[in-house]
Amino acid sequence: MRASGIGSFPGTTQQAYDEALAIVLGELAEDLPYLPEVPGRGATAAMTGRTLGLVGELDADLQPGGWRLTGTSGAPPLDQRRARSLLAQDLDALEERAADHAGPFKVQVTGPWTLAATVERPRGDKLLADHGARRDLAQALALAVSDHLADVRRRLPRATELVLQLDEPALPAVLAAQVPTASGFGRHRTIHPPEASEALEEVLAAATAAGATAWVHCCAPDVPIGLLRGAGARGVMIDLDLLGPEGMDAAAEALEAAATVALGVVPTSGELPSDKAVVERVLRWLDLLGLDPATVGEHLVVTPSCGLAGAGAAGARRATELLGSVARSLG
């Protein structure tokens, strides 16, 4: 059993990023360390901006309401260049500290449906409203993922495995027609599972072709685990508190099929539970599903319930330490 994280850490400065990286590399070196995100540095460091910085096929800039495609080609807009530069700076710091890392390593990218639900078209409203724009976005993101993984592989040449975490917190809302239109008075039409799967499959296949193991993270109720696995996800990352009966069954099926389940069991705010309490909770969950920890343990990862950006510096450190301790106890 391993420990890892979702991605985000608290802070507003580059020093906060450096501290987050030191915590992750120090506490999770024997588990699954990852590239931290510090969204408090601004929109160019948050999950949407960070991913748009990678996408070279589409130009985007920041508007008062968030990110919007410009509809132009040529030099990327200033905000997108800033996002790209900041990520490169973060990767430089990673390379400097972890070039000799000889274990698995994880990076995170926002998925096509969460981008489509949050990024606007040049003339307004979300990309979700335009079938052609949705298709172009998935294709551009697939190319960006390939390039990004090649860059990370170059920087971490001794890494034994690269994991690509595709963040899709908005996917259940997209499938349930719960994404508001620009006016706020309506909802975008539902995206049917075949189309949702097709876009995910394109991006996940690009990650697999680049030699990475593709996971999907969704810290929302009604995670469509079966759809994600059908689209090519080798692992799913879920919040145990939000997992209903159908999700429980789907998670059990995933573990029995030797897919990875990253289980969010450490809260991101408030008082942290003890190591013993978290271990007992994981064991009770496995017992409820009728699964033997000795059999499925190698496919189970413990994580926070979601990102740690709101946990405070001390809280994020303690949560990461707790995860490592839990993984060792269960291992």
Fold and architecture overview:
With 331 residues, the chain is of the alpha/beta class. The protein contains 12 helices and 9 strands. A 7-stranded parallel beta sheet has the order 1-9-8-7-6-5-4. Helix 1 runs parallel beside helix 3 and helix 10 packs across helix 12. The termini are close together.
Structure keywords:
seven-stranded parallel sheet; alpha/beta; 12 helices; 331 residues
Compact summary:
The protein is an alpha/beta fold and 331 residues long.
Shape designation:
globular
The low-confidence runs, each spanning 5 or more residues with pLDDT under 50, are none
CA gyration radius, whole angstroms: 19 Å
Distance between the termini: 5 Å
In the CATH hierarchy, what is the class?
A: Alpha Beta
Topology order in helix (H) and strand (E) letters:
EHHEEHEHHEHHEHEHEHHEH
Q: Which strand order does the major sheet show?
A: 1-9-8-7-6-5-4
- CATH-defined architecture: Alpha-Beta Barrel
The secondary structure category is alpha/beta
Q: Note the main sheet.
A: 7 strands, parallel
Count up the domains. 1
Total DSSP helices:
12
- How large is the share of residues in beta strands? 5-15%
Q: How much helix is in the residues?
A: 40-55%
How would you state the average pLDDT, rounded?
95
Q: Which topology does CATH recognise?
A: TIM Barrel
How many beta-strand segments? 9
What is the secondary structure topology, with strand pairs?
Elements: E1 2-3, H1 14-27, H2 47-54, E2 60-63, E3 66-69, H3 78-98, E4 104-110, H4 112-118, H5 131-155, E5 161-167, H6 171-175, H7 193-209, E6 213-217, H8 225-230, E7 235-239, H9 245-256, E8 260-266, H10 275-289, H11 293-296, E9 300-304, H12 313-330
Helix pairs in contact: 1-3, 1-12, 2-3, 4-5, 5-7, 10-12
